[in-house]
Structures are given as C-alpha cells and as structure tokens.
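Recall the central idea of this unit: under ordinary conditions, the amino acid sequence of a chain determines the structure it adopts. In this exercise we apply that idea directly, starting from the sequence alone.
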Amino acid sequence: MDIVVLAGGLSPERNVSLVSGQGICRALRGLGHRAVVIDMFFGLEGWDGKPGDIFEKPENLCGGEAIRAEAPDLEEVRRTRADQSASLFGPGTLEACAAADAVFLGLHGECGEDGRVQAVFDLLGIPYTGSGHLASGMAMNKAVTKQIMERAGILTAPWREILYGEDDISRLAEELPLPCAVKTINGGSSLGVALPDTRAELKDALREMLQYGGHVIVEKKIKGRDITVGILGDRYLPAVEMIPESGAYFDYAAKYQEGRSLEVCPAPITEEQWKAAGEAALKLHRALGLRVYSRADFVLDADGLMWCLEINSLPGMTPASLLPKEAAAIGMTYPELCQEILNLSLKEVKHI
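Accordingly, the structure predicted from this sequence is:
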C-alpha cells in the first residue's frame, strides 16, 4: 500500500509526533508498504515532483528527529516555513494524502487529536487511522471527557472547569481547594499540567497556564501510582506502571527522556486492579465513540481504587511510548502493532 505517515504539525507535542511518525514509517516499510513521513506543517516543501510520486522516494521527507527535554518553540517553527501561510497544512500535504491508499496518523496534541484533521479527511474521503473527528474532539477536551466519565460511572476525581484571565488569578488562588491538579483543557504529553500544594504554587500554576489560553480544569490531586492501559480493537492490553526517577511527577521529560522513568509492563498490580482499569478504559473508549485504539491513564490510590485521569485517542508510538510496550507484553511486535492499527482502521472505514 501507498501510505502517508502524517506527523509533526504545530502543537507542543510536535517533536514527539515526528519521532512516532519515523518509527511507524520504518515499520510499515519493513512490512513491504511504500510509506513516507510527511510533516503536516511543512508538507512537501523542497519536493519538486508531483505529490503522488513521493512514494517512489527511497527515504523520508523529514530527517531524523529527537525528543528534547523541552517542548518546541512553535513561533520559531512558524517562522521557518517558506510560504508563511496561515494554513496548518503545508504545501502539497492534502494532495499527497489524497494520493495515498491510507494516511497513518502519527500526530499528537491539538494538531491531530482534536478532530480537525479527521474532519478534513472525512470531507475529502481520505482513509486514515484511528478515531473519527467527533470522538477525537471530545476525547481531547478534558472537561467533556470528565462529563462522559461521570455519566458512564467511571471513577474520576472531583473537578471544576474554569475560564479565567490575569485579573482572576488572586481570587482563584485563594478559593480553589488544595492540593489539586491544574490542567489546560486540551493538553497532552503532560504539557500544560501543574500540581500545586500551596496557595503560592497554585497562583504560579494559574499564571503559567495562561500561556495555553486560560481554559483549564482543576481537579483534586489523587496521590498514588501512575497506571496506564491501552485499548486495541475491542480488548484492553496489559497495564503499565510509570515510576519517575526519585518519585517525581511523570512529566514530559520523564515520559520521553531515556532513563528519567521506569516503566513496568505488565504492571505489578493485582488481577482485579488490572481488570478495573482495563474495563474502565474500554468503557470510556466506547462511551466517547473512539475507534481502533486509545490509551487511558489512571492513578491507583492507597486504598486500591483506580481513578481515571484522561484518555488519549492517538497514543504515542515512539520507541519509548507505552502502547508498544503493552502490545509487546502480549507478543505483538512493533511492526505487527502498526499493521493491526492499519487493518482495524481500514475495516472501520468500510463500515461507515
């Protein structure tokens, strides 16, 4: 098959996406597909041929990428695009995707997980991997996801949605309960998250979150062990426990910098705890209308309760990502996982 692996884009998770895209592309090529990575934001910049000819190219259109300790400077990324267009699709991106048999979405964050890209592809009739536009948009919005959790009877921490500006920070810092978690409404990869314990820390956290737009949820901080469970098709996979170095928070650096965390799969939890997390993840996946695959995050507290935090409609597919580890625990190699995601996605397209 001719496959575009769409990655990059213009979100804080851009570098994670590019590394995911490169891994997916190598796996698909190893399986005999004519796959090519395209950075969604830069598109075919520098390519002189026709969009449909890119599958003849023996190497990727974007070079090697690594995930750094800090998120990318998106304004700098914008400045480096030659055409300076306001479009999030780089030149030739849509034409190349339309020429493919399928698009494998290696995107993360707002560029890819919020449903806008899927909506464009739905309108253009372009087959792609993963969930549809509406389910993706709901899963990306933490407030909507929280409402769905509560209606589905899934255990989640008490929370509040807040829209605020600089003038509201002092008041909110005094009235919100502590300790808490402050999360931007549509963040991912642990970007746009703060865990204040004091009023001063809460004030700083609210000010920090303004850079993401000042739309957050504030929820009770549940202390415990970080657990995640992936969904593939109609089943849940073995759980992973994430243990950051020195007991720190499982943040962006801990997720993607080698040696910053220990990830144990299968997680050292009881069969009942795994089933509780897996069944909750599958219930949320279905309640949101997600398709093919996802990954839900939990905190296991001292009383043995699994508290659901959020769900990811396009889980990371980097070498350090969690879903490939879960697949490996049931004997599925990384290329086999990529092929299974592709197969399930194309099967879903036929049913729509």
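The radius of gyration is 20 Å.
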